[in-house]
């Protein structure tokens, strides 16, 4: 499958680079409207969504696509892309230079490849993780083509833990790390995969926030901890993922799960 994975990687790279160039020109210049779930959307989101879907269809016409801005129902295709054309729209509209373009490729409903490009900071993450799929190909997780691994450090006041805006209730005296709020779900978790933070939690991420990151985090060796009992993957055929959140904790190593999970379990309560 070497040629297949080369095509996948090249497509992700060229498409996100093209889309990112235009989004940089729009950065901080566009108006946003509010969607039903309270999140923001701009014309840039919609444009990027169409550009990415067109590129995927031209190269992989038989692959399905789930997208934050369009199709939300998983049809059960063997190969399916999950895309977030602009992760961090609020940052994007307010002129904060941390937002990205996220792609995840699913095989039989589970991510096996992820690619997330952050144009303002010139950082690009990608990774291959095949799990029990019996697929073969390149392996590993990378930031700007350099291999990444999570930190092996113990928690301290000199280490970071990332929160989302809906999980601030976990901040209490004695929390074992410094808190950071980045405003981008994908970067929250990728920072753990890259050894920048020891953990991160998101209370309401959607499938497009996590599909690409899942593969990269797994490939890097980070520990993905769903905060609900039902597993995220494989996706369920016929399921509408438009409004379904997946409360999630990601930590740098297994020993930190019993330390950090009890501190953030409350974010899964809805």
Quick tags:
270 residues, alpha+beta, Fructose-1,6-Bisphosphatase, Chain A, domain 1, D-Maltodextrin-Binding Protein, domain 2, 2 domains, five-stranded mixed sheet, 14 strands, 29% helix
CATH-assigned fold name of the largest domain: Fructose-1,6-Bisphosphatase, Chain A, domain 1
Strand order within the widest beta sheet: 3-4-5-6-7-8-9
CATH class of the largest domain: Alpha Beta
Note the run of SSEs as H and E.
HEEHEEHEEEEEEEHEHEEH
Query: Please, what is the CATH homologous superfamily of the largest domain?
Result: Fructose-1,6-Bisphosphatase, subunit A, domain 1
Number of domains: 2
Q: pLDDT below 50 for ≥5 consecutive residues: which ranges?
A: none
Largest sheet: 7 strands, mixed
Question: So how many helices?
Answer: 6
- Alpha carbon gap, first and last residue: 43 Å
Q: Mean pLDDT across all residues, rounded?
A: 93
Helicity, in percent? 25-40%
What is the structural class? alpha+beta
Got a strand count?
14
């Amino acid at each position: 499958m070497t040629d297949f994975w080369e095509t996948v990687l090249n497509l992700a790279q060229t498409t996100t680079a093209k889309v990112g160039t235009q989004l940089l020109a729009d950065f901080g210049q566009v108006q946003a409207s509010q969607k039903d779930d309270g999140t923001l959307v701009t014309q840039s989101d919609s444009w990027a969504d169409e550009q990415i879907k067109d590129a995927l269809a031209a190269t992989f016409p038989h692959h399905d696509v789930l997208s934050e801005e369009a199709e939300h129902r998983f049809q059960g295709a063997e190969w399916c892309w999950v895309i977030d054309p602009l992760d961090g729209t609020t940052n994007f509209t307010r002129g904060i230079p941390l937002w990205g373009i996220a792609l995840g490729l699913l095989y039989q409903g589970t991510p096996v490849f992820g690619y997330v490009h952050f144009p303002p900071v010139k950082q690009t993450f990608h990774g291959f993780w095949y799990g029990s799929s019996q697929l073969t190909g390149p392996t590993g997780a990378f930031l700007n083509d350099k291999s990444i691994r999570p930190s092996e450090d113990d928690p301290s006041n000199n280490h970071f833990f990332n929160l989302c805006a809906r999980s601030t209730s976990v901040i209490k005296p004695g929390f074992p790390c410094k808190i950071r709020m980045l405003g981008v779900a994908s970067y929250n978790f990728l920072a753990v995969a890259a050894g920048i933070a020891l953990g991160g939690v998101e209370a309401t991420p959607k499938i497009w926030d996590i599909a690409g990151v899942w593969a990269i985090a797994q490939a890097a060796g980070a520990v993905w901890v769903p905060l609900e009992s039902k597993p995220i993957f494989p996706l369920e055929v016929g399921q509408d993922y438009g409004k379904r959140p997946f409360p999630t904790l990601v930590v740098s190593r297994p020993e930190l799960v019993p330390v950090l999970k009890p501190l953030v379990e409350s974010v899964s309560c809805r």
